[in-house]
Request: fold
Amino acid sequence: MESFELVILGGGFAGMCAAVEAGESGASVLLLEKESELGGSTVLSSGYMAFAGTDMQEKKGIEDSTQSLVNDLIEVGGRVNKKELIDSYGEHQLKTYHWLVDHGIEFRTLQAVSGHSVPRGHTIDPHQGIQSLYKVVKELPNVMIRFNAPAKRLLKNDMGRIGQVLYEANGKEQIVAATKGVLIASGGFAKSEELLKLFAPQLNGALRISGEGSHGDGLQMAWEHGAWVPDLPYLSGTYGFHPSANSVVKSQGLAFYKGGIIVNQLGVRFIDESLSYKVLGNAALRQPEGISYQIWDQTVMEKAVADDPLYDFDLLKRRRLLYQVDTIDELADCIDVPVKVLEHTITTYNSGIQSGTEPEFGRKSLTHNYGKPTPIEKAPFYAFESTVAMLATYAGIAVNTKGQVLNPYDEPISGLYAAGEVTGGFHGAGYVTGSSLGKCAVFGRLAVLDALKKETKV
Ligand SMILES: Cc1cc2nc3c(=O)[nH]c(=O)nc-3n(C[C@H](O)[C@H](O)[C@H](O)COP(=O)(O)OP(=O)(O)OC[C@H]3O[C@@H](n4cnc5c(N)ncnc54)[C@H](O)[C@@H]3O)c2cc1C
Reply:
């Protein structure tokens, strides 16, 4: 039987960070990837990563601290996320940022994004990120990647430890031994209608935009061996996609974080737009016909960021997805909402934010505690029909700070590790932008560090 010290299931950001970490420490590693290429959901992502205290922030004069990032993660997570995981993220996040830079990952821009009290969205091109890690791996003779090789089941040895993986390659079932550990990094289940129906029937009307391999395989494999699965009740979609969006053309715009508002088909607002786009998504799905529009003016339009996945409003215009008109009357006509109601909505909102706190939903900021909203008054005016997409599941296998998979009694399942989107307990009830790619890198590496220090019989 083939044998490696570490077997990693999945070649997205978590799996590739882990493969590099393990490979550089000299361990023999096999990474099994179900698809014909690396990247999973990672390469579809907007590429935001949540770090605090970086040189990029310093250059822009942004004061930040690990504690502030930790506070935001806990607050936005509704205080139901596992504090030790958040503290561990805090402890390792800046070192991880430098580790990524040292491994060729290029951080490009810095933006204010959902859930953060200061601009903390450090962007990467996720293709460049995965390719940089792959380049490192290719130089390491002790790391092997096998494509089109889906893991099917995890097997225990006589000692009750997870020590083998049953997988498929070239149409045949094979078994490989893992002497120090198996790391599940197989991503989420946003492409599994079966699991979504089971755990998130409320997301029935949401688009599905995610990696092709995101079927929850790792979750099921861990489940068989008694893994606990936190955060499932908080599964949410992400607001801000045009209804025509899909995994290839992801037309998305978050003008509400630059000062736009959101109205439903009746022409009325229904939420504080500075909240997490997950919370906005849940509320949007409950509106009449599930239809809503982002509305903004030229002041907001001028805050567009070219080539940014979330804020490139000009791109949406070039794709003919925006209504652009000179008056609120015309705007109401375009989106078929009552003119008088829309006028009233905008007037009430404008006077509310000018007085400091708008009375209807208490909006005080652009994103979470950051930035000052501006009145919607400067022509031309814009409307963008928006809906919710299921991108990532952010719930699943319970892990501790070493990446060990836990059973319902918080006891590690011997030999089994998990990292990335397949894990639960980190985000809790709300999601902070950039924390998913961030946790892939932080916990992918921590799991490897723990696994490699132990050796037991297969
Ligand atoms: C449109 C979009 C935008 C996003 N934007 C952001 C963002 O800006 N910032 C952020 O932090 N997060 C973002 N996310 C979420 C983030 O991209 C994912 O949560 C993260 O990339 C998951 O990484 P991963 O390594 O855990 O899983 P993936 O990247 O999904 O990798 C898992 C890999 O495992 C493989 N696999 C699955 N099953 C098996 C099996 N049985 N055997 C072997 N291999 C298997 C898959 O094929 C895949 O290659 C976004 C997601 C989407 C879809």
Residues 2-234+393-452 form a domain with the FAD/NAD(P)-binding domain fold (CATH 3.50.50.60). The chain has a mean pLDDT of 96. DSSP finds 13 helices and 19 strands in the chain. The longest strand covers residues 172-184.
